[in-house]
Amino acid sequence: MTRTTMTTTSLPADDGAITHGSEARRAFKIAWPVLIALIPMALVLGAQAAQKGLSTIEVTLMTALNYAGGSEFAAVGLWTSPLPVALIVGMTFLVNSRHLLMGAALAPYIHHLPKRIVYPVLFFMVDESWALGLADARRRAAAGIEPSFSLTFYATLGALFWFTWFVFATVGALIGPTVGDLGRWGFELVFPAIFLVLVRGMWTTARAARPWLVSLLTAAIIHLTIPGAWYVPAGAVAGLAAAWFWADAQ
């Protein structure tokens, strides 16, 4: 990686240059509060899955290979006998449809990478790694650092989140049958808490946040009026349309 002088406090400044080691350390420093928040979420998912009849190895494989927390919670919530496969597949698609927009936002920063690197990058793209990785790429671009997308930084984030997620989901599956409903401890609040932290990290101005507000209001209205996960694509489309409208107006 090219050694480049640092100009912002959000980037490594221990020796004034970017190295693979400094990028990995910087990623861990930024990621550890989110990692702590992911642990109870993973425990709850694993416990709920075990209580629905999934074995420990099935929980491990689901969380390590599927690696999409929102859709995993939706699938476990729908897990009954006989298994509604079509419904689970459809719900998973709806919940994960936001990744289409997330990938589009990340594309300008990774388009120059070869496909053998891009595909693993996209596999590790979850809400947390995407938000932190994209915000970091924008800061680096503003500081004039090339390349703006730090592959080492992003790969470290992705590996940390992925490992934490499936390991503690497995632990949750192991202890789930003995501890009962972990939800009574209020761990579900971790979801909105992490979201607010990520939004704060990407915040620029209130004017730029207007599409977020449109997306939020649309998703809330659909969630209250239409059963299912239709609020996910509805909020995403509304936010995209609002962003296009205001960008065109400017």
TrEMBL record:
GO cellular-component term (any): plasma membrane
- Where is the organism placed in the taxonomic lineage, from the top? Bacteria, Pseudomonadati, Pseudomonadota, Alphaproteobacteria, Sphingomonadales
Cite the entry's keywords alphabetically: Cell membrane, Membrane, Transmembrane, Transmembrane helix, Transport
**Chief place where the protein resides:** membrane
Q: Could you provide one GO biological process annotation from this protein's UniProt record? A: L-valine transmembrane transport
List the source organism: Sphingobium vermicomposti
Pfam short name (any one): AzlC
Q: Can you tell me where the transmembrane regions are?
A: 30-50, 71-97, 149-176, 182-201, 213-246
Name under which the protein is recorded: 4-azaleucine resistance transporter AzlC
Q: Which domain of life is it from?
A: Bacteria
UniProt keyword Membrane, yes or no: yes
Respond yes or no to whether keyword Membrane is given for this record: yes
Where is this gene product found?
A: Cell membrane
* Family classification: Belongs to the AzlC family.
List the membrane topology term(s).
Multi-pass membrane protein
